[in-house]
Specification:
Distance between the termini: 8 Å
CATH architecture of the largest domain: 3-Layer(aba) Sandwich
CATH topology of the largest domain: Cobalt-precorrin-4 Transmethylase, domain 1
Radius of gyration: 20 Å
Number of domains: 3
Strand order of the largest sheet: 1-12-10-11
Shape: flat
Order of helices and strands: EHEHEEHEHEHEEHEHEHEEH
Strand content: 15-25%
Helix content: 25-40%
């Protein structure tokens, strides 16, 4: 089977930096923890676990050692508790997530009611919400009722949102009641490049595969966008998740991957896919 890989896919700089930090710390320290999965990719988390990285959900589960703040960041309250315990903290928060946190704090300080377009259940959003007092997260137009009426609104977005969705939500917010509207673009340019590359590719292939953690927001967004242009789009974690029957009658497959998908997962998938039914036409 012919396999074409998207021009932009796989680890972004923020994720790569977080993984590199974790690997370095694991060679230097004994008790190393990650407050939540360091990235949203089960394969990579399991690989690091074998090297000694322990993933915990709560600060209370850590008594001593070194704690890595994952790429999605952590709430100020959590970091304060870690410092109170005297734990060694290694901050692997993505630079763009830190920027979003700073902007949200500044907007609130300047008197704006902060509104974030994103998924309120995502750890990136949870960490940002805790940076302010009354930050509102909206995912789609059905959430518009949460907006404070006749207020000065400061609008930002989850870093992995698509420009189209952010634009759509801004238009919806603009039709609502407000006295002032300030918008700051907090989209990740790397995520946008991956989205654009994936959409271009999915239009040219018989079947499209999007590789990455099922809990990964940016991977889910890639799959969602590709599905709009190619109904034969499938979001998989790795090769083991593929139903081989999907390949029947397909000649050309496209492959992309989220920003938290390691290269070795992509390579294994592409190698196996290229060898599957080769020459069957």
């Amino acid at each position: 089977m012919k396999v074409v890989i998207a021009e932009k896919c796989g680890f972004c700089h923020g994720v790569r930096d977080a993984i590199n930090m974790a690997e370095k710390v694991l060679t230097q320290e004994k008790d190393v923890y990650s407050l939540g999965p360091i990235i949203h990719n089960r394969d990579e988390v399991e690989r690091l676990a074998k090297a000694g990285l322990r993933t915990v959900d709560k600060v209370e589960e850590i008594e001593s050692g070194t704690v890595i703040i994952r790429s999605h960041g952590a709430a100020p309250e959590q970091i304060a508790k870690l410092k109170e315990k005297g734990l060694n903290i290694v901050d692997a928060t993505c630079g763009l997530v830190k920027r979003l946190q700073r902007i949200a704090r500044q907007l609130e300080k300047d008197g704006y009611k902060v509104v974030i377009v994103g998924d309120e259940n995502h750890p990136e959003m949870q960490a940002v919400v805790d940076c302010g007092k009354e930050i509102v997260v909206i995912a789609n137009e059905s959430d518009l009722h949460r907006l404070p009426k006749n207020s000065t609104l400061g609008v930002v977005c989850q870093t992995t949102e698509s420009p189209d969705h952010f634009g759509k939500m801004l238009a919806a917010i603009a039709r609502d009641n407000f006295s002032e509207l300030k918008v700051v673009n907090t989209l990740c340019r790397e995520a946008i490049k991956r989205q654009e590359s994936a959409v271009r590719l999915c239009k040219q292939v018989d079947i499209m595969f999007v590789l990455g953690g099922l809990q990964s927001a940016n991977t889910h967004r890639l799959a969602e966008l590709c599905k709009k242009h190619n109904s034969e789009t499938f979001h998989l974690e790795n090769w083991n998740g593929l139903d081989k029957d999907l390949l029947i009658g397909k000649n050309v497959a496209g492959v992309t991957a989220g920003a938290s998908t390691p290269e070795w997962v992509i390579d294994e998938f592409v190698k196996n896919l290229a060898a599957f039914g080769y020459g069957s036409g």
